[in-house]
Specification:
By secondary structure, the chain is of the alpha/beta class. It has 20 helices and 29 strands. The strands form six sheets. A six-stranded mixed sheet has the order 12-17-16-15-13-14, with helices on both faces. Strands 18, 20, 23, 25, 26 and 28 form a six-stranded mixed sheet that branches. The N and C termini lie far apart (96 Å).
């Protein structure tokens, strides 16, 4: 028997080609010129019950041998999170897929299999693939066209490994940040998930059988983001009106866009498991909304209907009769087939229901062109992790950054600062910045796949700046221009990420931040997390806060915003709690958020000349350094200023009425002074004011002096240029113009 199967598998491709060319006139389902409807009808007329039952099974690749597909007519395989061939390369995936496909084509009717993966932020199971920001970051970017391009790039990488079916996008509307899948949601409002259904169009392309297109999946039907207490797989206790307006709305748009499949949620609606909910699946999804694609279960989800381990005949009957067309069974596929056969033969599952399921599954297989081109399109294999896709991911990271605090204009950071300090457990960690569903189901800290860390992005962005990195913040002192702390959550997925208790930073982060604060250096916090965190108590200690979400493999996109190469443009897709006790907190619920839904600051287009401009907030310098002031509230000063040194400040706006005075706060322990010239547009530009510097008796003994200004109106780049003196002659704290 094994020998015959092996021969059949080896020759399947030739047999299929021969049958298509020689018998297309007699075998309608093999005639690519016939309509899909006619091809499906012809094929189903030839299928035995075993063929039909097999088409309703999807099982994990590790639970089968290729010959099982031939013997048992299994219609679909999947790779669960972290399930990959060895070695985990794109080419190995393609080889694995083709091997399984040959076995499927060795069946008498030569029905190809369809293979699914959770490519939820890029082809995230594959080592070396491009990992895009998780959905919460894309919700912050609020760019449906960008999301469509991400869908297209993901489909190309998925196609290059042979896979035909992607279990994305997740259209859940997350209403409680304790939920471990919050980052899989585009945000707390239906409008965001609805807008981002462009991912469906990107994945499926202009036609499912077009090169580089894959079947998309809208998940999870329905209401999984609204469970009580944010419990994964929990109970969504809302009215039908709210279910429809908030949770069903994004699915309606996905169906309008032609999404090919819908995955059912583990959760319940008002106590009834969705996997047995005939009204919501058959009546609403299929009949009312007109969904004609494949309804697929979640991983072993029918086993959870009765709350007891091991699926039963009653669970099989309930799920199939509720309208589920394909059952995802991780390992016990033989038992499922036996139980389903018994239910059909007894009449408890009508044959009409089996035929409906098969029609839906086979229709998508024909539309995908699997009967004509069943094997991997190797022309796309090289796109996995390609420079073009990584550039797109970097663009997405830039757009997803949300600036939540920016005291005294510390951001954007200057690229010409002499020294920057970087700390935090996620600064140099691809795994942390990618989050769950990356290489492994739960994700993993460390160098789990190629990419650019946030630290590497910072190092690449600066010009001649010494960047010191210490994970724990050890070694920082007051001579650094700023400290960048990259902190937040470590990877998790699904229920392992539920946080029924606190949502605060961990002990390591808090200890690191305390060291940075003690140095007196401005602290810029980059928060890497899958949701808002409880940080209100620490926020006053930080000069700036950027929500980076889970950016994926292209950490340089974070640096693009920190250093001003891209504006801070992201807006919160969720409400940010003042404390965890507010959970759930959502837009319009009357609760006072720390940062409201839609909040996001931007870098000021100009600096107001008539407000205090901190000397340390330059974006260009020559010859100077920063240090901590020792008197209360002084912050940082620029020191070691000598003849010819200069500081540059962008876009200082004097307005239409010229300034007449400038006040300068300085200190000097020198024996002889010099002067500071205020110049416009360049270090050698017009002088509008000159402030004489006299020794004050110490480098931290501060004095303020005011001098006249002439010719300062409109918007200019402002330079402070040092003249004269003997060696270092002054420290500069701040200056402010007046009329």
């Amino acid at each position: 028997m094994r020998a015959r199967v092996a021969v059949a598998i080896a020759t399947a491709g030739l047999m299929l080609t021969s049958m298509v060319t020689a018998s297309a006139q007699q075998v309608v389902y093999l005639d690519k010129g016939a309509t899909v409807q006619d091809r499906v009808s012809d094929l189903m007329a030839r299928m035995k019950l075993a063929d039909k039952l097999g088409q309703m099974v999807q099982t994990e690749r590790k639970a089968v041998q290729p010959a099982d597909l031939t013997t048992h007519r299994i219609g679909s395989l999947l790779s669960g999170g972290g399930s990959a061939p060895a070695p985990n390369t794109a080419a190995s995936w393609a080889d694995m897929y083709d091997n399984f496909q040959r076995a499927a084509l060795a069946t008498p009717l030569r029905i190809p299999m369809i293979y699914g993966v959770d490519a939820v932020h890029g082809h995230n199971n594959v080592h070396g693939a491009t990992i895009f920001p998780h959905n919460i970051g894309l919700g912050a970017a609020r760019d449906p066209e960008l999301v469509q391009r991400i869908g297209k790039a993901t489909a190309e990488e998925v196609s290059g490994t042979g896979i035909d079916w992607n279990f994305a996008p997740c259209l859940c509307v997350a209403r409680n940040d304790r939920w471990g899948r919050t980052y899989e949601s585009f945000g707390e409002e239906a409008e965001l998930a609805t807008a981002m259904t462009t991912l469906v169009t990107g994945l499926q392309g202009s036609a499912l059988n077009a090169p580089g297109s894959v079947l998309a999946t809208a998940k999870h039907w329905v209401g999984d983001g609204g469970t009580t207490n944010g419990t994964d797989q929990g109970n969504t206790e809302v009215s039908e009106a709210e279910l429809r307006s908030r949770h069903i709305t994004p699915f309606r748009e996905a169906i309008r866009r032609g999404v090919g499949s819908v995955m059912i949620s583990y959760s319940s609606w008002n106590g009834v498991k969705l996997h047995a909910h005939k009204y919501l699946v058959n009546d609403v999804l299929k009949a009312e909304l007109g969904f004609s694609g494949i309804v697929i279960s979640d991983w072993d989800a029918i086993d959870k209907i009765d709350g007891q381990p091991g699926f039963t005949p009653e669970e099989v009957r309930a799920s199939v009769n509720a309208g589920i067309d394909m059952i995802m069974v991780s390992a016990e596929w033989r038992r499922f087939l036996d139980l389903l056969r018994a239910e059909v033969e007894s009449g408890r599952v009508p044959m009409a229901r089996i035929d409906d399921a098969n029609r839906r599954v086979l229709t998508k297989k024909f539309e995908l062109g699997l009967f004509e081109k069943p094997f991997t399109d190797r022309s796309y294999t090289s796109t996995v992790g390609s420079p073009a896709h990584r550039a797109l991911a970097r663009e997405a990271v830039r757009e997803s950054q949300v600036l939540l605090k920016n005291a005294n204009g510390v951001l954007p950071l200057p690229k010409t600062a002499d020294k920057l300090f970087v700390a935090g457990k996620s600064a140099s960690d691809i795994g942390n910045q990618s989050g769950g569903w990356t290489i492994e189901w739960q994700g993993k800290s460390g160098a789990i796949t190629p990419g650019t860390t946030v630290l590497q992005g910072i190092q690449q962005a600066v010009q001649g700046t010494a960047v010191t990195y210490n994970r724990n913040g050890d070694g920082i002192n007051d001579t650094y221009k700023a400290a960048i702390a990259v902190v937040g959550e470590t990877p998790y997925a699904e229920y392992n990420g539920d946080r029924p208790g606190g949502l605060g930073l961990d002990a390591e982060d808090l200890a690191t931040l305390a060291k940075l604060k003690a140095s007196g250096v401005p602290v810029v916090v980059v928060l890497v997390s899958g949701r808002p965190m409880d940080i209100a108590a620490q926020l006053p200690d930080w000069s700036a806060l950027v929500a980076a979400w889970l950016p994926g493999t292209e950490g340089a996109g974070v640096a693009d915003v920190l250093f001003g190469d891209h504006p801070a443009s992201g807006k919160l897709p969720v409400s940010w709690m003042r404390s965890v006790s507010q959970q759930p907190i959502n837009n319009g619920d009357g609760k006072s958020a720390l940062f409201g839904y839609g909040h996001g600051e931007s870098f000021p287009a100009t600096q107001d000349a008539y407000q205090v401009i901190g000397a340390a907030y330059y974006d260009e310098q020559r010859g100077t350094g920063v240090q901590r002031c020792t008197d209360g509230g002084c912050g940082q000063n620029v020191g070691w200023i000598a003849n010819g040194d200069h500081l540059g400040y962008a876009d200082v706006d004097f307005g239409s009425t010229p300034a007449t005075r400038v006040t300068t706060r300085f200190a000097s322990g020198a024996t002889a002074g010099g002067s500071l010239e205020y110049r416009l547009d360049s270090p050698s530009g017009p002088v509008v004011a000159t402030q004489a510097i006299t020794p004050t008796g110490g480098w931290q003994t501060w004095a303020s002096a005011t001098t006249t200004v002439t010719g300062a109106s409109g918007k200019h780049r402002l330079y402070v240029v040092a003249r004269g003196g003997s060696s270092d002659f002054t420290n500069l704290n701040w200056f402010q113009f007046s009329r």
